[in-house]
Description:
This protein has helices at about 45-60, 90-100, 110-115, 180-190, 200-215, 225-235, 240-260, 270-275, 280, 285-290, 295-300, 315-325, and strands at about 5-15, 15-25, 30-40, 65-70, 75, 80, 105-110, 125-130, 140-145, 150-155, 160-165, 265-270, 305-310. The protein is α/β, with parallel strands linked by helices. The protein folds into two domains: about 5-115 and about 310-330, Nucleotidyltransferase, domain 5, CATH 3.30.420.40; about 130-305, 3-Layer(aba) Sandwich (Hexokinase, domain 1). Helix 5 (about 200-215) crosses helix 7 (about 240-260) and helix 6 packs across helix 7 (about 240-260). The longest helix is centred in the C-terminal third of the chain and has 25 residues, at about 240-260. The two termini are about 20 Å apart.
Amino acid sequence: MHATKMQLLAADVGGTYARIGLVEVAGDAISVGFHRRYACAEFGGLAAILCRFREDLREAGSALPTTCVVAIAGVLQGDVLLNRNLPWQVSLTQTRHEAGIAHLHLINDFEALAWALPKIPPTQMQVLGVGDASGLPLPVLLLGPGTGLGAAAVVDQNGRTNVQPSEAGQAALAANSSLELDVVRMLQAQFGHVANERVFSGPGLINLYQVLCELRGVQPRWHTPADLVDAADAGNDVLAAECVALFCRWFGSFAGDLAITFRARSVCLAGGLTGHLQHYLRQGGFMQRFIDKGVLSDTLREVPVFTLEHGQLGLIGASAWLVAHHPHALCGA
């Protein structure tokens, strides 16, 4: 007997881009069909992006499904999404009305990405720290520095895969060296509460660079993460290279802290910045600080660490979450 095929609309909305696609669900199989990517800043809100996709979909000869799940950066509180990295506010009710979608669900973007992890072939992952295992033994810690900092854990709950979402990006940043203490003090003077994503994100990388420039008494030359990483790659800016190396070491310490907190047996790094920093993450500073946890260092040496490209995984993960939590919604998809 063949599994019944259902179609739904899935979106993955971050601080910079929104990916939207038609998703087909057939039993445990989830596949992405027609899809598009849009720059969030070019639209007045989430509903406007969904309406634009409807137009693109109509031109492709397809109709918009009545069920939509959106993986989006932030936390839903009542009807309103709490997020400081999006260029506009999101109301669930208003978006549903303006986009003309009968059944609209919102899920945290990194929670959605975590739901996709069990469906990722090993060939899509690159090994950063070997550990003593293959694949992704549970619990898996997922971290992603991008426009913000995403964090979630994939766990085994009574024999079934489940996801524990997290707002670790908003927890206080911990310093582990005199230089990092100086950075935290200066960021605290500027922001008050210094969240982890004030450093472990694309904008955070620039925050870190600007503080290093102030500490060294030089004028900042770079104002975007891409320009900063390019300067470090070119080898003609010592401070840019120092900044990127410090970022990777410090991020390794943070990842090790969370691995201990969740008692993770594997770690996966995603997010746009991870891809840009692949070369630097492999230089050793990240893994050195990841393992440097005193009495638990030997335990962390056994934890494999992987990196992966985000791509369409947010769409697949959001759909997997919908299947797990709202299977009845697919009946009207």
